[in-house]
Amino acid sequence: MSLYKFEQNDVFKNRIKTHPRISFVISDKKTYYNRDILPINTFAIADETIQQTEQGDLSLYELNINRDASTHSPPTQESLIYPFITKQGSLTSFKTISTETFQTYSYGDVIRGQYPLSSSIDVEYQAASSTDRPHIKALKNTFNYYRPLSPHYAYESSNAVGTWDKASQEIKLVSIPSIFYGSSIKKGSVDMKFYITGSLIGRLQDSNQNGELIQTIGPAATSAQGRVDFNNSFESSYDNKRIILENTSGISKTFIFDATGTEGSTGTVDGSGFIIIQIDGYEGDNAAIGTEFATGVESVSGFQISTNDDAFGSITLTQVIGGSSGNTTIQDPDSIASLGIVQFAGGAADNNGKVAGTVLYNEGFVALTGSWDLSSTYTDEYLFSGVNIAPKWTLWGQKFLAADPGAAEFCPSSSWTIDCEGTNYVPVITMLAHAKMGDLNHSNNPTYVKPSSDQDVEVCVDIEHDVDYYENDKRELANVVKSPYPNTSGSFEKTTYISKVGIYDENKNLIAIAKLATPVKKTISREYTFKMKVDF
Amino acid sequence: MASTFKTFLNDDIATTRTLLHEAIPITGSIIYGTYGAPGAELQIKTFAHGMFQSVYDYPFLSSSANHIFDVTHAHNSVFQTQGVTGTKSDGATYDGASQLGAISTHPFFKKRKNIYGQMGQVLVGHDVVGEIQKFDQDGDLLSAIGSKYNCLIFMNFARLLGKDEIKKGSFELKIGTEQTHSATAGVMNDNLLTIKDDGAATNYKVNSPAGEYGILKITGDSNVSGGGISTQPEYDAKCGLIFYQAGVVALTPDLFMGFVASVYNKGKITNASGGGTDGVDAKMNATQNILALLNDNAKTMDDVALAFRQRIEKVCFNNTTELNSTIYFCRASHNDFNYSSNPTYLLNSKIRVKGKRDHDPISYITSVGLYSSDNELLAVAKLSEPLRKDPTNDMTLRVRLDY
């Protein structure tokens, strides 16, 4: 065996950055991790998996698979694998043993732990009225630490961005243990969804990579509607009188009635820019007057107000673009007799683009504060309070409750998902081992020498009652050179086959072995460089 | 960033080693019977070479399954003429020649020999002339041939369970040696022998290249023929070896033959009902004992492993993991660390926590940094609560670094 020292350029230390994908689905009090469903334990512990945990939990060592925990009572009756330690001077104990409990043990006592050690995603809802929220308050400094990234991280705010106080506002804290994501959650990878009966009703993404969870999918904006009722059937009541409409973009159009038949047909624009509503010949027919008005409104290209005629003189006007703008823009400046006007109302803008929460990337928390309704029609008993309420982001993942619903279903129509990527670093050492020309051409392997009946016997010499063993130095090396001709060997050449490379520390302790898939032939004229990589 | 460094003296650094154990109970229901019919058990992985079986704690195709141990058996070249141990505990000799006369023609003869040689190389090593040594009953490898194990059943426990080593004196195996065959595990576990490495915590062997090993014996906890074993000849008989660091248990097939000639056929590993119509042990013949089973050309090594597994009632042991720690005693004497370079320590160029000029300076220690010789920060220890430090007190902070 030959030992070579690594030179300066033979050892590289790198770090591989990996991004493991994480996915949680929460539905009806259960969590599913990476869409995996573990079998249920056959020993009748309700809903417990074979790993003795709930669905979606991570078992640290994954021991005690499908065992009967009910008969486990150490040390007399053991059915589960469990750790134990003896209290001694090093004061080593388990993390789950408190200092106070540790002090109750005497030296020499056995301290028992238990498996599984599990880890899982957790959600914590705080109503606006609740002030008992230690987990939120403990994160005050952390929230404020992230403020350079986005003003939405601020624990308290009263500026143009908004006014809130995380110590008292309605909030949902989602906790993801670091065992799932590693060093930090990857920025820009968080994707949260809210489903009702399998239909997506809301989606949050940190698309700006600054921790703001922005709603990208939500309920569409609703359009404002108004109505004009033509109750008067006398042509003269309308002649030369105006109705003014304004759309959501702030564009106004004036419609003027003509009962004389001289100004042009409906839809004609006169010299003042007014749109003619021709009602000549409609005396006594208020429904026809209304229909003519609807025709005039529809004739305006790109006006973005649509009409609906009930054929009885009532015209419903709808702002095509959703939102609340233009809610009061039906004007009757000439006071048409008996004209009924119901102003535009009911319009609402969508909440897409709004920030519904923030992500604490390094700590693994998501704080959801978006409290707007995600559905105008669906409600459920999300707070187990006897009152049905609309879904909203602060109710995302509503799984754990102060009042336990027991075996009863809990909001079975709602389900939630969170997908993200973690960031995990893998330190790597790359080593280059060189087999240079002229080196490593001899082996101590017994088969390297030629087998021979008289020469491979070791020689024993007795010198004053001591026994020494010598290897015969006349032994011939085996010739493994292949010849192209049958029944003969090629010209002898020192040849070895390298099958493994050993790594030694500075004290020549063997600390690692790298094996080759197939041995490589090494002759005096050949040289190799073996690249070895160790992950940690 | 620290502004004051103190150098550790020799007495300030101590190393400790703590042993963390796990109790590993493996019930017979995991090893046999729960996950399918014999020969098609989902938690047993068999191989085309047929040289050993791997036992898992759950159907092995599941990613949740853990490998528990491998089971196999082996014998050496003299097994054919000398039997299992050459001589029995009462001095009688086996009629090995008559029982094993044709074993050299067995399809697995060479594989068994190879396994014995391979296990022997690793666990008991070579003698001065380079020959692989034989496993010895009492660990005296240089003793006469009569105390050797020529045939052994091996259980190789996974590193997942054995960890650094099996805790000495903690191993226990309960195995049935009932001759009557039944599909009921309870019947198969009658004539229950309890095998332990009693006393090994202080009395173990060190002449193995694989580390330390102990002697397995049949103990008084056994329940043979409905009573205690203390009056039986099997009591305290050596029946195998346990290699603690390697996590290997080697058992003699004598367990299934009775240890003395008078009870030669008391315990059989075979199916006494003939034909095994219940399907549990159908591959066994009616009158075979372990020697005949090994000698039967129709029986594979998997058959022997199955017969062994179905008689195990329980295996349990404690494993050991060494936790190596370095303890740094960080001493803050009365005149050390009473000031701070923290920006908040000063207010208007005066010490914030000092009311009057003649008051003592006060600081609050929140963390301890460990630095290398060239002042690189290597580790930080945090206190659960800040400690008040002023010239009237001194303290030693004990920082433990586990590896």
Characterization of the model:
- The complex is a heterodimer of chains A (536) and B (403).
- With 536 residues, chain A is mostly beta strands.
- Chain A contains 5 helices and 31 strands.
- In chain A, the strands form 8 sheets. In chain A, strands 1, 2, 3, 8, 11, 12, 13, 14, 15, 24, 25, 26 and 31 form a 13-stranded antiparallel beta sheet that branches.
- In chain A, a hairpin with a 4-residue loop joins strand 20 (305-309) and strand 21.
- The two termini of chain A are 27 Å apart.
- With 403 residues, chain B is mainly beta.
- Chain B is 12% helix and 33% strand.
- Chain B contains 8 helices and 22 strands.
- In chain B, the strands form 5 sheets. In chain B, strands 1, 2, 3, 4, 7, 8, 9, 10, 11, 12, 15, 16, 17 and 22 form a 14-stranded antiparallel beta sheet that branches. A two-stranded antiparallel sheet of chain B has the order 5-6. In chain B, strands 13-14 form a two-stranded antiparallel ribbon.
- In chain B, a hairpin with a 2-residue loop joins strand 11 (205-208) and strand 12.
- The longest helix of chain B is centred in the N-terminal third of the chain and has 15 residues, at 109-123.
- Chain B starts with 12 loop residues before the first strand and ends with a strand.
- In chain B, 39% of the residues are buried.
- Mean pLDDT of chain B is 82; it is low at 88-92 and 259-287.
- Classes of the chains: A mainly beta (536), B mainly beta (403).
- Chain A binds chain B through residues 38-39, 50-51, 62-63, 65-67, 74-75, 78-86, 88-92, and chain B through 16-25, 27, 30, 57-58, 62, 64-66, 161, 316, 318, 323, 325, 327, 400, 402.
- Strand 5 of chain A pairs antiparallel with strand 1 (13-27) of chain B.
Describe the SSE topology.
The complex is a heterodimer of chains A (536) and B (403).
Chain A: E1 11-18, E2 21-27, E3 30-33, E4 58-59, E5 82-86, H1 99-104, E6 110-112, E7 118-119, E8 122-126, H2 134-137, H3 140-145, E9 156-159, E10 162-165, E11 171-175, H4 178-181, E12 184-185, E13 191-196, E14 199-205, E15 212-217, E16 225-230, E17 242-246, E18 252-258, E19 275-278, H5 286-298, E20 305-309, E21 314-319, E22 330-331, E23 339-345, E24 355-360, E25 365-368, E26 414-435, E27 459-463, E28 466-470, E29 495-504, E30 510-523, E31 528-535
Parallel strand pairs in A: 18-19
Antiparallel strand pairs in A: 1-26, 2-3, 2-26, 4-7, 5-6, 8-11, 9-10, 11-25, 12-26, 13-14, 13-26, 14-15, 15-24, 16-21, 16-23, 17-18, 17-22, 20-21, 24-25, 26-31, 27-28, 29-30
Chain B: E1 13-27, H1 28-31, E2 44-45, E3 53-56, E4 67-75, H2 79-82, H3 96-99, H4 109-123, E5 135-136, E6 148-149, E7 151-157, H5 159-162, E8 165-166, E9 172-176, H6 185-188, E10 192-196, E11 205-208, E12 211-218, E13 223-224, E14 227-228, E15 238-243, E16 248-251, H7 290-295, H8 301-309, E17 312-332, E18 346-347, E19 350-351, E20 363-371, E21 377-389, E22 395-402
Antiparallel strand pairs in B: 1-17, 2-3, 3-4, 4-7, 5-6, 7-16, 8-17, 9-10, 9-17, 10-12, 11-12, 12-15, 13-14, 15-16, 17-22, 18-19, 20-21
